[in-house]
């Protein structure tokens, strides 16, 4: 019967273990010096050699003819452990033997001396699956086992192991195997199997395996089944890297703000039975690759893709900004969480794409902050474009003109205006208003209504105040760009509608001239009283006494 590669080429000595020198060197030194511990804990991600090293250690401590800390694999003990005839080495799957009774049976067996070997070795795989009661039942035996008993615990989730267990074990951490080391091992295995494997294909297999040699060997086994020389193209086709054009189509639709094209593509993928959660994960990886391209000079070390796909990703990344990619990734990450319990995953994915292609519909706090930042950048760089047309407002007196467009404002002769955004707005003097301005009490409610009708304007008006002067509402904004933003027809109408909904009256809009108000307040009150009396024909004499 055919034996898969990861079983056939499982290392038999420490020297064959790939990418874990910090573990193998220490274990060999302990064996050769006779300084063996009674309990070991091997932790690390899948496919990095934890169980392999546990089996090699079990053979090495019992081998009749060890060689520099490695088992000889020729004596009857080594062969018996390999074929399972030596019952002194027991491998336990903690996922299915995680109860207190299982640990009690283990403790009873540990009381007996080995039948054929020197040590009775217990290899507990996936040790984090043991129950709390099972861990507690194991504590005393693990702390003070008989001199002929050796425990080896292996786990991928060391944070689930109780501290009382960790303190009783020698811990060895297995790191992810680098693509370079994995490529060398895969080339060696392919050569021994008589299979032609190109170096580029081996390196791509190493990156696809994500640090797990077992995954790399399994994928190599699958590529060999395709027949012929294993090239980079064969690996791409076998691993499913090819045929991802729909990801580029979706990203192009998002960058072009083409909602219709994105929804049609989602419909096409749905008809082809594409899982929406899987699609969301693929999109996250796709946009993550562009993010790395935007932030790194050499992103290929962190990307799993061919050279042709890397070129396409670089071209696609030029169509957007890093801030846009962060917004897209944030939206997709949130969508992936919601897809887990969404009643209709297709609808959830469509809503996410609509938010991505129409940022103005995203009312999240992060989206509003991004828009405000974009407005601030536009003010600083002078790149914003304002409409040239001015909306006429009936019923406004000549003494209190409407907020005018920035392009109609005359530039100060002493300073050169660098752009249309920097052109001053002619202010409205509150001193000339028929009615002295008073604070608008419902201004917070107006801003709250703008949160849904005009979110960008709502963000720009944060921290402002408003005053009522007759038929006008005067906006007190420290930043003059806010007044230019209000002057845009869409924003102006939204603000007027919000004011009407909250007050029941129709107001014209204008800027609040803080200097005039301060000057009015600072004027001599006696002089103001005299002027008021004189205007009414009342004669007032002020005695020097």
How do the helices and strands line up, and which of them pair or pack?
Layout: H1 5-8, H2 21-33, E1 39-44, H3 50-62, H4 76-83, E2 89-93, H5 100-110, E3 120-125, H6 132-143, E4 149-155, H7 163-166, E5 170-174, H8 179-193, H9 199-208, H10 213-225, H11 232-239, H12 245-255, H13 259-271, H14 276-295, H15 307-317, H16 322-339, H17 345-357, H18 365-381, E6 438-439, H19 443-453, H20 455-460, E7 465-469, E8 472-476, H21 480-486, H22 489-503, E9 508-511, H23 514-522, H24 525-535
Parallel strand pairs: 1-4, 1-5, 2-3, 3-4, 8-9
Antiparallel strand pairs: 6-7, 7-8
Helix pairs in contact: 5-6, 8-9, 9-10, 9-11, 10-11, 12-13, 13-17, 14-15, 14-16, 16-17, 19-22
Report on this structure.
The protein has 24 helices and nine strands. The protein starts with a helix and ends in a 10-residue tail after the last helix. Helix 10 (213-225) crosses helix 11. Helices cover 50% and strands 8% of the residues. The chain has 545 residues and is an alpha/beta fold. 35% of the residues are buried. Strand 7 (465-469) and strand 8 (472-476) form a beta hairpin. A five-stranded parallel beta sheet has the order 2-3-4-1-5, covered by helices on one side. Strands 6-7-8-9 form a four-stranded mixed beta sheet, with no helix packed on it. The model is unreliable at 385-434 and 516-522 (pLDDT under 50).
């Amino acid at each position: 019967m055919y034996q898969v590669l990861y079983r056939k080429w499982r290392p038999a000595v420490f020297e064959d273990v790939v990418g874990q020198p910090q573990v193998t060197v220490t274990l060999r030194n302990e064996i050769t010096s006779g300084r063996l511990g009674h309990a070991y804990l091997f932790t690390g991600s899948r496919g990095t050699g934890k169980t392999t090293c546990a089996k090699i250690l079990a053979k090495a401590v019992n081998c009749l003819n060890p060689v520099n800390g490695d088992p000889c694999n020729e004596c009857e003990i080594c062969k018996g452990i390999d074929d399972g005839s030596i019952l002194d080495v027991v491998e336990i799957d903690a996922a299915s033997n995680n109860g207190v009774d299982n640990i009690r049976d283990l403790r009873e067996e540990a009381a007996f001396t080995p039948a054929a070997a020197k040590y009775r070795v217990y290899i507990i795989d996936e040790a984090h699956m043991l129950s709390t009661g099972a861990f507690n039942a194991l504590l005393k035996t693990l702390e003070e086992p008989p001199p002929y008993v050796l425990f080896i615990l292996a786990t991928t989730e060391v944070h689930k192991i109780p501290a009382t267990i960790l303190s009783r074990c020698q811990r060895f951490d297995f790191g992810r195997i680098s693509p370079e080391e994995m490529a060398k091992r895969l080339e060696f295995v392919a050569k021994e199997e008589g299979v032609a494997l190109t170096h580029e294909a081996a390196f791509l297999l190493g990156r696809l395996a994500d640090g797990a040699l077992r995954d790399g060997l399994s994928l190599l086994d699958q590529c060999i089944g395709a027949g012929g020389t294993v090239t980079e193209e064969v690996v791409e086709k076998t691993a499913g890297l090819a045929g991802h054009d729909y990801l580029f189509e979706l990203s192009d639709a998002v960058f072009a703000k083409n909602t219709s094209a994105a929804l049609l593509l989602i419909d096409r993928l749905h008809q082809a039975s594409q899982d929406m959660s899987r699609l969301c994960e693929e999109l996250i990886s796709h946009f993550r690759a562009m993010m790395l391209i935007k932030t790194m000079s050499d992103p290929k070390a962190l990307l799993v893709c061919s050279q042709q796909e890397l070129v396409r990703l670089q071209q696609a990344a030029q169509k957007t900004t890093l801030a846009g990619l962060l917004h897209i990734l944030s939206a997709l990450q949130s969508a992936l969480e919601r897809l887990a319990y969404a009643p209709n995953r297709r609808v959830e994915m469509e809503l996410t794409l609509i938010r991505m292609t129409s940022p103005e519909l995203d009312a999240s706090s992060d989206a509003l902050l991004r828009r405000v930042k974009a407005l601030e950048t536009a003010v600083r760089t002078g790149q914003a474009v304002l409409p040239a047309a001015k909306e006429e407002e009936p019923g406004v007196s000549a003494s209190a003109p409407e907020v005018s467009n920035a392009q109609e404002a005359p530039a100060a002769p002493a300073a050169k205006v660098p752009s249309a955004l920097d052109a001053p707005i002619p202010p409205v003097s509150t001193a000339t208003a028929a009615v002295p301005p008073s604070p608008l009490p419902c201004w917070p409610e107006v801003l709250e209504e703008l949160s849904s009708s005009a979110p960008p304007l709502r963000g720009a008006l944060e921290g402002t105040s408003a005053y009522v002067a007759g038929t006008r509402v005067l906006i007190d904004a420290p930043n003059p760009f806010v007044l230019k933003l209000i002057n845009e027809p869409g924003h102006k109408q939204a603000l007027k509608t919000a004011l009407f909904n909250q007050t029941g009256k129709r107001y014209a809009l204008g800027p609040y001239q803080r200097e005039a108000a301060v000057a009015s307040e600072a004027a001599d009150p006696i002089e103001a009283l005299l002027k008021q009396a004189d205007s009414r024909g009342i004669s007032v004499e002020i005695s020097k006494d």
